[in-house]
Amino acid sequence: MAEIIRSVKGTRDFYPQDMAIRRWMFDIIREVSAQFGYQEYDGPCLEFIDLYAAKSGEELVKEQAFVFSSPGDDMLTLRPELTPTLARMVAQQQYEIAFPLRWWSIGPFWRYENPQRGRTREFFQWNIDLVGTESITADAEIIAVAANFFKKIGLSPQQVKIFVNNRRLMDQAFAKLEISQALRPKVFRVVDKLDKLSVKEWQAYALDTGLSEIQVAGLMDLVKNEDLWQESEDLCELFELLKVFEVADYVQYNPRVIRGLDYYTGTVFEAFEQGGQSRAILGGGRYDNLVADVGGNRLTGVGFAMGDVVMELVLRDAGVIPEKLGNTPEVVVTVFDEETLVESLKLALFLRESGFKTVVYPEPDKLGKQFKYADRLDISVAVILGPDEISSGQVAVKNLKTREQVTIKREDLLEQIGEFLPMGR
RNA sequence: GUGCCUGUAGCUCAAUGGUUAGAGCGCGUCACUGUGGAUGAUGAGGUUGAGGGUUCGACCCCCUUCAGGCACCCCA
Description:
Elements: H1 16-35, E1 39-40, E2 46-48, H2 49-53, H3 58-64, E3 66-69, E4 75-78, H4 83-92, E5 101-110, E6 122-131, H5 136-153, E7 160-166, H6 167-176, H7 184-193, H8 199-208, H9 213-223, H10 233-244, E8 251-253, E9 264-273, E10 280-287, E11 301-307, H11 308-318, E12 331-333, H12 341-353, E13 358-360, H13 367-376, E14 381-384, H14 387-392, E15 394-399, E16 405-409, H15 413-420
Helix pairs in contact: 1-5, 5-10
The structure holds one RNA strand.
């Protein structure tokens, strides 16, 4: 056998059983998004590199994007994120769109990273945004969308938590500690490290970034202060609203959530798996200048993004992925010989029109082999059509799960199949 | 970019430096000419990732290289 050309590093093959899980997950995303009145959109997977250069910074484009020149010598990139595309699309029609807009999307993205658990080079991301309002209600709604997704997919507040903070609040707190503006991006990273390092390591790391000992001590107090939110009007209002949205049990204040991105200006949030791995599932927040960078008017919004890779890991850990996802055929029609093949095909046609997912064994073969095939495909019902049945206007129906078999009149076939099929098909 | 681990049958894995590299699962055929999963019999399937070295002898030890996994870095 010739050697099989391997798949590209960091990509995934979706066999039918994998695809069924993806479909299931995406359907819930679609359902929740639509339920809140969001409209689906999408952009191209290919964009000019300039689109990202304007906004995302050098490092992302140079080191993590798939960049190449087209035959026409344009510098193109496989989109590493959706936000710049969204910004462009909004800017292009800024006088046409009815604001506030509620848009969502799911599609493939590419980043040239070192693949490892929970991280691939090709992945899917759910993006959802509410653009054109500064109301805190919008922040609450977006968080409620995330919480409702968790609820619907089967993750409880004990299994997953959305941690919320406010960038402005943290900026004020940093100002009180007299941490300079220039140092703050680094300080964000310091804060982010707190849960990963020991106290001593963390202090050393913090001092290393240029903070004074007093500042380090102050910072430590700050990021351990779970009541800090009370100093922020926005957060007080947000938490009240989250109660109204009936998602408060999924949400918790956390002063250590800041998000690396510079463009977040108010509310920031990240959902984490609770317990063992504690992986970040989704993240988002409020931003001030979505479209200004690509030449539009100032527009604020709030949104989040969720990758499918970590999400699926978490769902697996939680054991909430259904065993049966209903992507298998339901009925197999057996074929006795060349003469009866046409009868089998006609019967299958009838079953399909009646709404059953039906396959026909493609050629005459031993019944045993046909059953074995059906069994391998996890098909529940076999319809047996041989010369005896044809001449008597009957049909044999076998429940492959229970081995029960009955011979009935043709007109009773649909009812019989319905009886043999497992519930909830 | 850095570090650790792993590459043996289609899959999951064995095999003190010593005969012809094995097992389970899967696959083919038969027992079974209109009835599957079980059982039994039997068969196919390998350049041990690749290249070099040490050795009387290498799946095993050493070097190089390729690939994969995991962690760090980073995470828009």
